[in-house]
Specification:
With 127 residues, the chain is of the alpha+beta class. It contains 3 helices and 6 strands. The strands form 2 sheets. The chain has a 4-stranded antiparallel β-sheet with strand order 1-2-3-4, with no helix packed on it. It has a two-stranded antiparallel sheet with strand order 5-6.
């Protein structure tokens, strides 16, 4: 019994030593990264210039008559819900950009919306 306790104590001490070494390595790596500028961190400036460029409009979804306040993708990345000042939630199929459902709401002040991420069959909104 005492031998087993001693072997566990040795394993615990070895694990504590490994943890301290890993903490030191993490701190050293953080200091190394902080000391780098972004272009040397990524290795080239082309990535930074592409990230800094303005986003391009790929498609325009037409269906709301008011300002769109929020959009959210479903967990399957196929469906998209949008909430607008016109008092509607619209669920879009992001593959063909067509409306799947239009949900009229009691209030026109809808400030946010979200998909339930696991089953993708519930939508929530609030404002």
């Amino acid at each position: 019994m005492i031998g087993a306790i001693a072997s566990y104590a040795g394993k615990i001490e070895a694990t504590k030593t490994k943890i301290e070494k890993l903490r030191t390595q993490i701190c050293d790596e953080k200091q190394r990264i902080i000391g780098l500028d972004a272009s040397s961190f990524f290795g080239y400036d082309a990535l930074l210039t592409s990230l800094a460029s303005q986003p391009k409009v790929r498609r325009t979804l037409k269906g709301h008559f008011g300002k769109v306040y929020a959009m959210h993708f479903s967990g399957n990345s196929r469906d998209l819900v949008s909430a607008s000042q016109d008092g509607k939630l619209i669920i879009w199929n992001s593959h063909n950009m067509m409306k799947s459902h239009s949900i009229p709401l009691r209030s026109s002040w809808v400030m946010t919306c979200a998909f339930e991420q696991s089953r993708n069959d519930l939508v929530a909104c609030g404002g």
